[in-house]
Design goal:
Number of helices: 18
Number of strands: 11
Distance between the termini: 81 Å
Shape: globular
Oligomer: single chain
CATH class of the largest domain: Alpha Beta
CATH topology of the largest domain: Rossmann fold
Radius of gyration: 24 Å
Number of domains: 2
Order of helices and strands: HEEEEHEHHHEHEHHHEEHHHHHHEHEHH
CATH superfamily of the largest domain: Alpha/Beta hydrolase fold, catalytic domain
Length: 491
C-alpha cells in the first residue's frame, strides 16, 4: 500500500495535470514590468494589437493597453478578475489606484486586470479639451459647448485611429477577449461599474463560456437609453433628498421651506451672479441658468455624503448665495479618476443610445425635464455612428452566476434597471439593493467582502447564496449643518 502522504502527493500531481489540460497557464510572456501612478507596487503591462475595423483584420491597427496586478500568492488561481470601467470614457488603468482596495483579498490568489477600453487611456484615445478650469460662463454656454464638441470631432477624425464608428461596446468587448487570449486564460471574472455593467453584459453575450462569475454595480443595461433616463432617475433621487429632509427633525427645522425655496430658485433663473470659481477661487461673473443649477444638483446626488449638503446649498442659493451649490458640484467633479475621454463617450452613446431616444417611454422629471438629453441630441445628430447589432439590446439568460448591485437612491442607475436586467439574465442572476446608497454599492466597505466571497466561492450554487445582508441597515447621512464659528456649535 502506498503511504498516505505519497498518495496525496500523487493525487495533487494528477489534479495539477488535469488543470493544465483544461485551463491554459497564465503566461507572463506578453507582459513587461511597469509602474502606474497611485499603485504602490510594480505591476505588469501589456499591449494587444487590434484591427480598428473588425471587418478588416489586415487593415489599420490600434494598440489596446492593459495592466495586470499579479496575485500575491505563488499558487495563484487560474481565473483572473477583469475590471470594466465606467463612463463611457473612463480609463480602467487611470482608475486602478482608487479601485484596487476593492480587490485586496481577491488579489491574494488572483491577478487583477485593468484594460483601457479602445478610445480611453492609452488605447487609441479620443480626448477633447478639459474645460473645468475655464470661466463658468464658457462652461455653461450650450452653443459654445456644441461648437467645441464638433470641433473636437473634426480634430479626432484626423487621427490615424479617428474613424469614430469603431468604438462601440460590441467591438470593445472583442478587444477584451483578445486580452484574455493573449494572457492564456480560459475563464475570467468580470467586475463592472456603471457603464462597465453594460460592457460586462455584452461580453457575457458574446463570450458566455469564457465568464466564470460577474459582479455588476450600478446596472446600466443595454436597453437603457442613457441620456433620456437621466431625467426620470435624477428627479426621483432629488425628490428623495427633499423628502428625507422633511422627515428629519433637525433638517426640517433648519430648512422649513425647502421645497418652496427650490421652486423659487428655479423660477428666478436666468440671472447674473458672481461666485468664486470652484477651482481657482477667483471671482467669476456669469449668467446662472436653470440648466447650470440642475447640473450642480445632479452631481452630488451620486454620493449621499455630498447630497446631504443639498438642503443647505439650496436654501443658501434661494437667498442669493451660490457658493455652496457650486462648491458641492465641484467636489464631485474633482474626484480622482473622474475624467472621461469625451470623444469615446459620444462615440458610444451616439451609436447605442441616440437612435432609440425617440422611443423612450420614461416620463421626463418634473424639474429636470430634458435638460441633459438636449445636448446629446444635437451632438449625436452630427457625430459618426457605428453599427450596433440588434442582439446587443437583447439580454439572454446568463450562463454563469451574476451578482447585480443597486443603491436605493442612485440617481443614474437606480434599482429599476437592474430589476429588468436580473429578470432577463434568469436563474443565474441575483439582484441586491442596498438602502441609502447612491451610485456605487461596492464603495460600502462590507461589500468588499461580499465581492470576494461571491467570486471565491467554490461552486456556482454557493456563489448565488452568498450573504449580502451586511449593508441592509445602512443609514442615510444626516443633512449637513454648518458650524457657527463664534460658538463652535451647530445651528
Amino acid at each position: 500500500m502506498i503511504p498516505s502522504v505519497l498518495r496525496r502527493f500523487a493525487a495533487a500531481l494528477l489534479a495539477a495535470a488535469a488543470l493544465c489540460q483544461t485551463s491554459p497557464a497564465w503566461s507572463d510572456e506578453p507582459l513587461k514590468p511597469c509602474r502606474v501612478a497611485g499603485v504602490r507596487n510594480e505591476v505588469r503591462c501589456g499591449v494587444v494589437s487590434r484591427p480598428l475595423n473588425p471587418a478588416e483584420p489586415d487593415g489599420k491597427k490600434i494598440d489596446v493597453h492593459y495592466m495586470v496586478v499579479p496575485a500575491m500568492a505563488r499558487r495563484k488561481l487560474p481565473d483572473p478578475v477583469f475590471l470594466l470601467a465606467g463612463g463611457p470614457g473612463q480609463s480602467a488603468i487611470g482608475a486602478s489606484a482608487q479601485v484596487m482596495p476593492l480587490f485586496t483579498r481577491l488579489n491574494n490568489r488572483r491577478d487583477i486586470v485593468f484594460v483601457d477600453q479602445r478610445g480611453t487611456g492609452d488605447s487609441a484615445p479620443l480626448e477633447c479639451v478639459d474645460v473645468r478650469h475655464r470661466p463658468m460662463a464658457e462652461q455653461s454656454d450650450p452653443e459654445r459647448q456644441l461648437a467645441e464638441l464638433l470641433q473636437c470631432r473634426d480634430k479626432l477624425r484626423k487621427l490615424p485611429h479617428g474613424d469614430l464608428r469603431f468604438y462601440t461596446t460590441t467591438v470593445a468587448m472583442q478587444d477584451l477577449d483578445a486580452v484574455r487570449r493573449q494572457l492564456g486564460v480560459a475563464q475570467v471574472n468580470l467586475v463592472g461599474a456603471s457603464y462597465g455593467t453594460r460592457a460586462a453584459i455584452e461580453y457575457m453575450r458574446q463570450f458566455p463560456k469564457q465568464v466564470r462569475r460577474t459582479v455588476i454595480d450600478g446596472v446600466a443595461p443595454p436597453d437603457m437609453v442613457l441620456p433620456a433616463s437621466f431625467s426620470t432617475d435624477n428627479q426621483a433621487a432629488f425628490d428623495a433628498v427633499v423628502a428625507g429632509c422633511e422627515s428629519e427633525p433637525l433638517c426640517a427645522k433648519a430648512h422649513p421651506t425647502l421645497r418652496a425655496d427650490w421652486i423659487a430658485l428655479l423660477a428666478s433663473l436666468p440671472k447674473p451672479v458672481t461666485v468664486p470659481h470652484p477651482l481657482t477661487g477667483r471671482p467669476d461673473s456669469f449668467t446662472l441658468t436653470r440648466d447650470m443649477v440642475l447640473g450642480a444638483v445632479r452631481g452630488p446626488l451620486y454620493l449621499p455624503a455630498l447630497a446631504s449638503g443639498l438642503p443647505h446649498a439650496i436654501s443658501e442659493a434661494a437667498q442669493g448665495r451660490y457658493e455652496a451649490l457650486v462648491g458641492l458640484n465641484s467636489l464631485f467633479a474633482a474626484r480622482p479618476g473622474m475624467s472621461l475621454a469625451t470623444g469615446m463617450h459620444f462615440s458610444v452613446v451616439c451609436a447605442e443610445d441616440y437612435p432609440r431616444m425617440a422611443t423612450v417611454k420614461d416620463a421626463p422629471g418634473r424639474d429636470f425635464e430634458r435638460t441633459f438629453s438636449r445636448l446629446y441630441e444635437r451632438v449625436c445628430a452630427e457625430w459618426p455612428r457605428g453599427e450596433v447589432p440588434a442582439a446587443f439590446y437583447t439580454m439572454t439568460p446568463a450562463a454563469s452566476p451574476t451578482l447585480l448591485l443597486s443603491g436605493s437612491i442612485d440617481p443614474a442607475t437606480p434599482p429599476r434597471h437592474a430589476e429588468r436586467a436580473a429578470k432577463a439574465l434568469g436563474a443565474n442572476a441575483r439582484h441586491v439593493v442596498v438602502p441609502n446608497i447612491g451610485h456605487g454599492v461596492l464603495s460600502v466597505p462590507c461589500m468588499h467582502d461580499v465581492l470576494f466571497r461571491f467570486i471565491d466561492a467554490e461552486d456556482d450554487a454557493q456563489a448565488l447564496k452568498v450573504d449580502a445582508g451586511c449593508a441592509k441597515n445602512m443609514p442615510r447621512p444626516p443633512a449637513y449643518r454648518p458650524l457657527e464659528l463664534s460658538t463652535g456649535s451647530a445651528r
